[in-house]
Amino acid sequence: MGNWTLETIDWDRFDASKVDTEILRNIKAAAMVERNGADYGIYLGRVFADDPAFVKDVDGWVVEEIQHGMALGRWAQMADPSWDFDAAFDRFRKGYQVPLDTNASVRGSQAGEMMARCIVETGTSSYYSALKDAIAEPVLKQICAKIAADEFRHYKLFYEHLRRCLKRDRLSRWTRLRVGWSRIAESEDDELAYAYFAANEPADAVYDRKRYTQAYAKRAYPLYRAAHVQRAMAMVLKAIGMAPQGRLNALMTRAGLWFLRRRSAQLAASA
Question: In CATH, which superfamily holds the domain spanning 17-270?
Answer without folding.
Answer: Ribonucleotide Reductase, subunit A (1.10.620.20)
